[in-house]
Amino acid sequence: MTPIEIGLISVVAIVFLIYSGVYIPIALGMVSFVSIWLMRDNFTLALNLLKIAVGDSAMEYSFATIPLFTFMGLIVSKAGLGRDIYEVMTMRFRKVKGGIGMATVGANAVFAAVTGSSIASASVFTKVSVPQMMAQEYNKSFAVGVVAGSSVLGMIIPPSAMLIIYSFVSEQSVGDMFLAGVIPGILLAIAYVGAIWFMGRFTPNFVGGRIVEDTEWMTKREVASKTLPTLLLITIVLGGIYTGWMTAVEAGATGALVALIIAIVRRSMSLKGFWEALLETGHITAAILFLITAASIYSRMLGLAGLPNQLQDILAGNSASFWTIMLLYVLLMLFLGTLLDTASIILIVVPLFLPMIEAMDLSLIWFGIITVVGAEIGLLTPPLGISCFVIKSTIDDDRISLKDVFMGALPFALVMLIVLFILIEFPILSLALI
Predict the structure, then answer these.
(1) What's the structural domain count of the chain?
(2) Is the pTM of this model over 0.70?
(3) What is the model's pLDDT at position 177?
């Protein structure tokens, strides 16, 4: 077999193994190692490339962003900042049809800016938001759909684990990727709020709910105590990166320290909780390092097979336009999103398209935002839909089925798709802050 044929078979084999339940890094690393061995008929070469991949991943300075931002997010979650932001947002939107849904989106957007995890957002707001919406007679599909849809903001608004993974795969600056995610994340949050208003106006039965008039307003002091800690963290992390005072690693370290101080001052975390946060940070960091190492050997395998160049030649030979290429890319992302998780999609697809995007003189930072938003739509679509499964497993309500979660998330997946095409048409939205 030719290297091209081996490369094509390897990509199909990786997708099949991951969908069959094989751990992602093992599927990537094992198939890539065997493919290099077969292409060059040289076991020593394959072993040496594996050693290089491990060394390059572990020694990368910017990799320190992962444990630092992960630790910060876990501490913030344990400190109860997500619940505080939600309470303030609920008070502000209480007299609007679908107001609690809008409050959930707003709180998720703010929470995303200090956690960077869709799964954490889905878990927190399922416990906080859904019971309140159900108590106020909201449609059950809408209640869980809002949480599912807005949870994906955690992977777009920085700090984001997916943006970090993309930055390693594409060899881009983590700080630049974070800044690029700010405007698209805010745009998506605004689009969600607009969609909820539209549904409340034109499909009130789908939204349901009743407006609560007798809720007492918080005092300015209460609002400040619930919002200032989170705003302080956001200012330190994103402000430090944007002004150039801190690198992404330094911002992560500072943010983690400030988050820990906030948790201590609020007396919201025990020594046991601190130890659990440390252990979970280690587990997540090790898992992502394993992913990045496997992705590194996979990229080398694709390069040896010549698949990226072959794909570029095919599209160039057919005189494919910019929009044709982007439509194909989005369709591929949507298809894989029904089968694989976001990290798998980024690790498998991005190395195939990067050389072509560079040859077209397009920004790899912009392409990263398009990739993450496109892949995140998969969190809301069956059969995998990780955010939907997290919500169903977290909520303790037999009245809500997995079908209700997926049906409720469908309008928000459509909104994401519309925003995705806006971001493709207007790259400046992703690049304005860089």
Answers:
(1) 1
(2) yes
(3) 93
